[in-house]
Amino acid sequence: MDVMPKWAEVILVPLISLILAALLSAVVILAIGENPIKAVSIMVDGSIGGVRGWGYTLYYATNFIFTGLCVSVAFHARLFNIGGEGQAMLGGLGVALVLLYIPFPHWSLALVAASIGAALFGALWALIPAWLQAARGSHIVITTIMFNFMAAGLLNYLLSNTLKPAGQSDPASAKFDAAYDLPTLNSILTDLGFQAARDDSVNVTFLLAIAACFAVWFLLWRTRLGFQIRSFGQSETAAKYAGISPLKITVIAMLISGGLAGLMAVNTAMGEQERLVLNSVEGAGFIGIAVALMGRNHPFGVFLAALLFGFLYQGGAELALWTSIPRELITVIQALVILFTGALDNMVRTPLANLFLHLRKGKEPPETAPPPPGPKRPDHEPEGTVKEA
Amino acid sequence: MDFLTIIQVLDGTVRLAIPLLLACLAGLFSERAGIFDIGLEGKMLMAAFFSAAVAYTSGNAWVGLLAGIASSMVLSAVHGLASITFRGNQLISGVAINFLALGLTVLIAQDWFGQGGRTPSLSGAARFDSIDLPGAITRIRDMRDAGPLMQFYSELISGHSILVYLGFLTVPITWWVLFRTRFGLRLRAVGENPEAVDTAGVSVVGLRFAAVAICGLLCGIAGAYLSTAIQAGFTKGMTADRGYIALAALIFAKWRPWYALYACLLFGLFFAIDNRFQNITLLGFQLPVQFMQSLPYILTVVILAGFVGKAIPPRAGGEPYVKER
Q: Are strands B130-131 and B160-161 parallel, antiparallel or unpaired?
């Protein structure tokens, strides 16, 4: 039986971890001689205090939803995809190739094609690490890290040689056709008669991201494939016994994961920059790890966590603008969130589980000893199939 | 390409290989004890900042080195706390440590020195100067006229900072500790079969913390070398992914000290060639710079795939040890 009620598991544990991370962040702000309360109010003003702020908050959130889902889907198959960064870079390449070389009559068709291109390229970049993990036992964390660097090298090469238009000095592709500009939510608001600035912030890709949340939820909890992915993640031996092919599930889960990371590029390359630049991903692939951990790998949780990180990102940019606090504060907060919600999870969970056990003992007759809290013991793998690192 | 050019490229190789080697051996200790560490990058960065900052304020490179080691070991302690005490995910902890170092170094540098996330330039005793061995030529004009053996001695053997010689010395020491001492035997055992070590009455937790501490020590030296020996001061993100390359070298070396030396020298050679020549033509093909930069990563994936000799990691790596009840 469960040691903790479900609400405590889903809400209380992440919330306490988040509060711990926030408290430490406040200590960091104090230590560099700034006022944490003032800092938070500047961040709130700049990110959710106006239409412009909201626009960028949701723009960043769109990126983080995609990368968060990317990490989550892989986590459900017990794969740690740290390569969202590289997969998103390749996704950008897919967007650029589609938009530069195929003519479209309308932005909506271009959006569909660009999304397919982005997902395809992102998925393909995840294919080799997935196959190597499943067939050759090469640890996916190491291979995806290596593939991030290779993606950067490849993109750098293509952008400084092949895709760069003549006479341009910075490594970037040509501008996409202006007809492919995605309608931003701000412009839709203006058309409806509201006061809003026209800028290239949150656009229709945000709706695509929400659709992706629903799609991932449906896939994982309402389809046969999703069930197979989750069972494989819970226990590889049990899944094998049930006739689920580890090779197939590893590859499919990573393809979906990579495709989701790739989709992020639709938002950055097509929605905001309207061309492919070298550093368009800007670490969003790594933030996806924090988002997935905080969102407990559930699409709704990922959505909320992505909003929070969107707020942190936009608020952090405003903070750097108005105070002497560098943008890197956000990196520190991100690190603390990953540390507390991910690595130090048991630090919060174990005392809490003991507390609930204590409370329950008061009401019910004493029961048999619960399983020791802490991580699940790994499955016993058959001899000779040691997982690689 | 004359002989002196080759020697100069090799000299660059040594300079670039040393931080890789120290970080790689750091990872070796940790992973041999069953603790994965992808936070090498973060620890190096933290040490690079603190050694430069303290060397600047104290005017002494050695004090800086100690500060760098201390800061790196603090991050090691966090990693140990998360992955040994609380049995958390070691990979996630490593990712967090990398970001923590990336953010904190800039934040503190801005607060202390206000120069946009860097330390002021170091000079004099605040830096590890290169040591000229007896009889070595130091003037560039003399170097060109010297014989090949003299060039070899003066350019490649002499003229490095003390940390370079220390770095090379770490290889036999690591080998000796791991394969010739009781501590080393236990450390390797704890990475392969912690239950057996526990049954023998030796503390698994203690051994793993010791390994993680050594890892912090070596990363600290590597970071200090970057900011107080190769360069004169800390700049934002100055480790430039060396921690990840060291990780790649560790796999390439199949978790063995002497092979780690060869792997790091090889990767160092790639970077030295890349620094020296912008474009390389090989068999009529022009190799793009980006290819040279990606080569260590490509080679690592090939090795990991097991097509060229299989890399088998320590068996209990990455798994927290839960005592049987």
A: antiparallel
**Residue of chain B minimizing CA distance to A159:** B290
Task: State the smallest CA–CA distance between residue A145 and chain B in angstroms.
Answer: 8
Q: How confident is the model at residue A384 (pLDDT cuts 50, 70, 90)?
A: very low
**Consecutive sets of 10 residues in chain B, 325 residues long: mean pLDDT of each?**
82 93 96 93 97 95 96 97 91 92 94 89 87 76 76 80 93 96 95 92 94 97 95 91 90 90 91 76 73 84 74 79 75
What's the gap in Å between the CA of B37 and the closest CA on chain A?
Answer: 11
Share of chain A above pLDDT 90, in %: 48
* Contacts with A12 (C-beta within 8 Å, 6 or more apart), sequence order: A4, A352
Q: Cα–Cα distance between A358 and B249 in angstroms, integer?
A: 49
| Interface predicted TM-score (ipTM) | 0.90
Per CATH, which fold does A35-323 belong to?
A: ABC transporter involved in vitamin B12 uptake, BtuC (1.10.3470)
Q: Do the chains contact at A338 and B36, CB–CB below 8 Å?
A: no
- Give the Cα separation of A365 and B321 in Å (integer): 32
Tokens matching residue A348: 């919060």
Nearest to B86 among A32, A330, A347 (CB): A347
What pLDDT was estimated at residue A201? 81
Q: Where are the domains positioned within chain B?
A: 3-304
Cβ count within 10 A of residue A243:
7
* Integer Cα distance of B130 and B138 in angstroms: 11
| Residue where the block lists tokens 């993990």 | A133
Q: How far is the first Cα of chain B from the last one, in angstroms, to the nearest whole number?
A: 67
Whether A377 sits inside 8 A of B320 (CB atoms) is no
What residue segments make up the domains of chain A, in order of their start?
Answer: 35-323
pLDDT of residue A341: 87
Q: Which helix (H) or strand (E) holds B130?
A: strand B130-131
Residue B310 CB coordination number (10 Å): 14
Contact A326 B110 (CB under 8 A): yes
CA B229 to centroid of chain Cα atoms: 14
Phi, psi of A194 (to 5 degrees): -90, 160
A residues 130-159 closer than 8 Å to B (CB): 132, 136-139, 141-143, 145-147, 149-150, 153-154, 156-157
Sign of the CA dihedral running A316, A320, A325, A330: positive
Residue of A344, A350, A379 to mutate, testing the B interface (most B Cβ within 10 Å of its Cβ):
A344
pLDDT in tens, A60-101: 999 999 999 999 999 999 999 999 999 999 999 999 999 999
Question: Are A204 and A111 within 8 A, CB to CB?
Answer: yes
Q: Which residues of B touch A137 (CB under 8 A)?
A: 306
Alpha helices in chain A (DSSP H): 6-7, 13-31, 36-48, 51-76, 84-101, 107-131, 140-157, 185-191, 205-222, 224-234, 236-241, 246-265, 284-294, 299-322, 328-338, 345-363
Element (H, E) at B250: helix B242-252
CA atoms within 13 A on the CB side of B43: 37
Structure tokens, B64: 């800086």
CB contact under 8 A, A375 and B320: yes
Contact between A70 and A123 (Cβ < 8 Å): no
Joined tokens for residue A48: 């959710």
SS3 assignment, position A389:
coil
pLDDT score of B261: 96
- For A137, nearest residue in chain B (alpha carbons): B305
Query: What gap in Å lies between CA B80 and CA B61, rounded to an integer?
Result: 28
Contact criterion met (CB below 8 Å) for B243 and B97: no
Q: Which tokens in the block code for residue B81? A: 């706390």
Domain B3-304, CATH number (from 2.60.40, 1.10.10, 3.30.1540, 1.10.3470): 1.10.3470
